[in-house]
Write a structure and sequence with these properties.
The protein has about 270 residues and is mostly helical. It has twelve helices and two strands.
Length: about 270
């Protein structure tokens, strides 16, 4: 299948480049797109340039940084300009990524699956960044081996968990040579168990009955034939009729002025 017959890719599904914080993720996504269309050489400069490639880069960049792409002569130049701006391969950028990894914490015990996804993405970013670290970046070259160790990844994941999961971490640490898959599987099982328990608790609770039954407004007088009222009483002649009875005031009970009318008198229109 040629590139011209491939189905189009919607830009809405690709996160726009917003700065150094998501440059590596954006770059990998763009590489995937250009590889899908079999034209990676366009952005690397080894193939004939195409106007649509530059336009695609422009539309996949946030408004703040579109001037970098727009001012470039072609797609390859725009790609290089974005790389020079955001792919800063030095000790400071390596330290910043390591800081992000250390400070990444699980926000909520009920959100473990999303936490695991975010951790994997951040770990991949760090590995990709230090994989091509220059020799002048001592921290980056040192982290290269550090981040490829599976037990180190497992330790960082356990470090990112909430204190309420300390007992789970303690149990995992009793194992020798614990792997990232061991921690991942344990947390996913824990999340599934927690979700199932919550659903079972809700199901067993059922629907609470109404403590206050609805009042029957159509009920007639009592069996004794008497009817009591605090302020007004129905006329005796209309007890057995189906029409609303006329009302009469009880003696010695003056009619009070409605509250809303008293409040209205205080308002100066």
């Amino acid at each position: 299948m040629s590139a011209n017959t491939l189905p189009p890719i919607k830009l809405e599904g690709i996160e726009k480049l917003t700065g150094q914080s998501n440059y590596l993720t954006w770059r990998d996504a763009m590489n995937t797109v250009f590889d899908y269309y079999e034209c990676v050489g366009i952005i690397s400069g080894t193939e004939k340039n195409s106007k649509w490639a530059k336009a695609f880069l422009l539309m996949s960049t946030s408004l703040e940084w579109q001037h970098i792409v727009a001012s470039a002569t072609d797609a390859a130049a725009a790609w290089k300009a974005l790389q020079d701006c955001f792919d800063r391969r030095n000790t400071t950028s390596s330290l910043s990524l390591l800081k992000d990894l250390i400070n990444y914490k699980c926000a909520d015990n009920s959100d473990i699956p999303n936490h695991l996804t975010g951790f994997d993405q951040l770990w991949t970013r760090c590995k990709s960044r230090v994989a091509t670290a220059p020799t002048t970046d001592l921290l980056g070259t040192g982290l290269k081996t550090f981040l490829t160790d599976d037990t180190v990844k497992a330790s960082f994941l356990m470090l990112s968990l909430l204190e309420m999961l300390d007992n789970v971490v303690d149990n995992l640490q009793t194992k020798t040579n614990i792997s990232y898959d061991d921690v991942y599987t344990k947390l996913m099982d824990l999340s599934s168990t927690s979700t199932s328990s919550s659903k079972a608790l809700i199901a067993s609770a059922g629907v609470k009955k109404n403590r206050f039954p609805s009042r029957n407004t159509n009920s007639g007088p009592s069996r004794s034939g008497s009817s009591k009222a605090m302020t007004i009483a129905p006329a005796e002649s209309s007890k057995l009729t189906g029409t609303p009875p006329p009302l009469r005031l009880l003696p010695n009970k003056p009619l009070e002025e409605p509250m809303w009318l008293r409040l209205l008198d205080k308002v100066h229109l």
